[in-house]
């Protein structure tokens, strides 16, 4: 490594660290904490003003996790811990039906609005209480995480349960999202799981995820396959989400590093490069949100939007790929996506990042948080990039 490269890594590490600690987290600490009712506001306008007080369980869980993670891995700041605990206590009291079936949304005060149809309310509750246990040592939090994780695994074959609107048997499909999340979740709570059970869970997750990486499509990833592992020619079967696929690949790289499996890292890196090349908008720049495998019109009208999380997850993935394999294609893609993201999503006038751009890269919605965007992808991305860049600079 040359001195110029080392200085570039250090400069970028400082940029991501500063964005996290001086910009993004102060925004959420100032505007999102509901000191009256508990939990967090996630519907925040460009300047941080609250425009809706409903509380979405997966975003509540994500914020508990983010604050606990920063406390555990960056600095033992009491304000981060206090904010995490109050969010965790709100979730513990109001977020589920008494049997750890986690609602989708609540009123500000904690009354259920939408029933527990969404598996990601469960997965982010697991992450939240797992990390909060590590921050506090409170065994009740560990039990909530383990109990909920068991429920997640039990729901793997029908994540929506009685709220599943599909008619059984006609076109059964497997979806990429849950095994992809479980790859990350298993490492998040590995301290709470028996080693044999953890290994079995990880092996199953890796096997499931790799079914969606299609060799007959030169390594492209689809979001849905038949239960027999086949491609299915319908809207759902042709559905592609480049950002989702790329995010999953850095989860796989983390697993490869944890398991000392360089071949897993290499496969994940190659898949990520394949997906970013495929998903990049060659006319306007940025990565498409949704695509159709055969180039047909997607059913999602927002298919050509450019979303914050897609680009941030790509930054993480390309840095990890470069750090773990040295593949210069990863570094080139990191720089390309970095330039696009910091030019288009970073708000020059107010803290935090825009979430939704049109295809040309113009801001569609000025919000900084809403029903789907909360205190998660931006700060997690800043943290991950900062740490990988520091590691690169120290080599």
Description:
- Helix content is 55%, strand content 8%.
- The protein has 395 residues and is mainly alpha-helical.
- A three-stranded antiparallel sheet has the order 3-4-5. A three-stranded antiparallel sheet has the order 12-13-14. A two-stranded antiparallel sheet has the order 1-2.
- A hairpin with a 5-residue loop joins β1 and β2.
> Could you name the ranges where pLDDT drops below 50 across 5 or more consecutive residues?
none
β-strand percent reads 5-15%
Structural class: mainly alpha
- Strand ordering within the main sheet: 3-4-5
Question: Based on DSSP secondary structure assignment, what is the total number of beta strands?
Answer: 14
What is the approximate shape?
globular
* Multimeric organization: single chain
Distance between the termini: 8 Å
Q: Rounded to an integer, what's the Rg over CA atoms?
A: 20 Å
Total count of helical runs of at least 4 residues = 13
How would a crystallographer describe the biggest sheet? 3 strands, antiparallel
**Roughly what percent helix?**
55-70%
Helix-strand pattern, N to C? HEEEHHEEHHEHHEEEHEHHEEHHEEH
- Average of pLDDT: 97
List keywords for this structure.
55% helix; 3-stranded antiparallel β-sheet; single chain; globular; 395 residues; mainly alpha
Sum this structure up briefly.
This protein is 55% helix and 8% strand. The chain is mainly α and 395 residues long. A hairpin with a 5-residue loop joins strand 1 (43-44) and strand 2 (50-52).
């Amino acid at each position: 490594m040359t001195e110029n490269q080392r200085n570039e890594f250090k400069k970028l590490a400082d940029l991501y660290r500063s964005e996290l600690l001086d910009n993004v987290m102060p925004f959420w600490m100032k505007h999102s904490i509901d000191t009256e009712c508990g939990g967090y506001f996630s519907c925040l306008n460009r300047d941080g003003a609250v425009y809706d007080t409903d509380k979405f369980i997966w975003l509540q869980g994500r914020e508990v996790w983010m604050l606990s993670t920063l406390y555990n891995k960056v600095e033992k700041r009491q304000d981060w811990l206090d904010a995490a605990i109050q969010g965790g206590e709100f979730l513990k009291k109001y977020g589920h039906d008494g049997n750890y079936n986690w609602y989708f949304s609540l009123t500000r005060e904690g009354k259920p609005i939408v029933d527990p149809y969404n598996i990601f309310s469960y997965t982010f509750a697991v992450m939240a209480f797992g990390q909060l246990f590590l921050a506090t040592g409170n065994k009740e939090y560990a039990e909530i995480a383990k109990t909920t994780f068991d429920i997640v695994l039990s729901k793997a074959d029908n994540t929506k349960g009685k709220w599943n609107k599909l008619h059984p048997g006609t076109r059964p499909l497997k979806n990429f999202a849950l095994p992809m999340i479980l790859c990350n979740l298993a490492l998040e709570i590995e301290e709470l799981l028996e080693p044999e059970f953890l290994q079995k869970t990880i092996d199953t997750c890796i096997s499931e995820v790799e079914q969606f990486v299609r060799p007959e499509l030169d390594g492209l990833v689809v979001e849905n396959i038949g239960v027999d592992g086949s491609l299915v020619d319908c809207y759902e079967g042709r559905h592609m989400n480049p950002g989702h696929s790329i995010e999953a690949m850095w989860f796989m790289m983390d697993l490869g590093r944890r398991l000392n499996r360089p071949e897993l890292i290499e496969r994940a890196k190659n898949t990520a490069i394949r997906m970013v090349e495929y998903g990049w908008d060659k006319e306007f720049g940025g990565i498409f949100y949704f695509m159709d495998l055969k180039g047909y019109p997607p059913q999602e009208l927002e298919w050509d939007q450019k979303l914050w999380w897609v680009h941030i997850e790509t930054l993480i993935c390309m840095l990890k790929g470069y750090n773990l394999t040295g593949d210069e294609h990863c570094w080139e893609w990191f720089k390309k996506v970095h330039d696009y993201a910091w030019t288009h999503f970073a708000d020059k006038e107010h803290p935090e990042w825009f979430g939704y751009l049109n295809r040309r890269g113009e801001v569609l919605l000025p919000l900084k948080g809403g029903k789907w965007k909360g205190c998660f992808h931006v700060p997690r991305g800043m943290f991950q990039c900062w740490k990988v860049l520091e590691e690169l600079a120290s080599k």
